[in-house]
Amino acid sequence: MSRDVESIITQIIQGVNGDAALVRRGRYVNLTFQLGIDNHNYLVTVDNGRLTDIQPRLLSTETGVFSVRAKSEHWHKFWLPVPPRDYQDLFSMLPKQYAQIDGNVLPLMQNLQYFKDVLACGRMPQEGAANA
C-alpha cells in the first residue's frame, strides 16, 4: 500500500471528527467495529458519531459489533481520490468479494450512510482540489 496505515487512520479520525454534518448523522451511533486491512484488524470506537479510538486488535477475544475487511490492494483503490469502478462504494466491493462484512450488520444497515462516509474519509485528497 502506498500510504501507511497510520496516516490513513489519522486521516479518517480527523475527517470524521472535523465534519459536523457527519458527526450529527452518527449522533446515535455508540459502538466498536472492526476494520480489517489484510491480516491486521483495528477496533474503531464510535461515541455519539465521533471516532474516539482506533487501536490494533491485539487479542482474538477483542471484537466489534461487525467487521469490514479487505486486502490492502482493494482498500488502496477504494481510498483513491476518484476510485475505479467496483471500488467507489463499500457495497460495490462486496459482489466481487473485494471486501467482506461479518457480524451483526443491523447497526451498520441502520446507519449505512454514516459508515460509508466514515470509510470514505480515508480517501486521498484530489490534486489541486480547493481546501474547503
Largest β sheet strand count, sense and barrel closure: 5 strands, mixed
Which sequence of SSEs, written as H and E, runs from N to C? HHEEEEHHEHH
Which percent band covers the strand fraction? 25-35%
Distance between the termini: 27 Å
Molecular structure report:
This protein is an alpha+beta fold. It has a single domain (5-120), classed as Nonspecific Lipid-transfer Protein, Chain A (2-Layer Sandwich). Helices cover 33% and strands 25% of the residues. It is built from six helices and five strands. The chain has helices at 5-17, 20-25, 72-78, 90-93, 106-110, 112-120; strands at 30-37, 40-47, 50-56, 66-70, 99-103. The chain has a five-stranded mixed sheet. The longest helix has 13 residues, at 5-17. It starts with a helix and ends in a 12-residue tail after the last helix.
List the helices and strands and how they pair.
Layout: H1 5-17, H2 20-25, E1 30-37, E2 40-47, E3 50-56, E4 66-70, H3 72-78, H4 90-93, E5 99-103, H5 106-110, H6 112-120
Parallel strand pairs: 1-4
Antiparallel strand pairs: 1-2, 2-3, 4-5
Characterize this entry briefly.
The chain has 132 residues and is an alpha+beta fold. It is 33% helix and 25% strand. The two termini are 27 Å apart.
Which descriptors apply to this entry?
132 residues; alpha+beta; Nonspecific Lipid-transfer Protein, Chain A; five-stranded mixed sheet; 6 helices
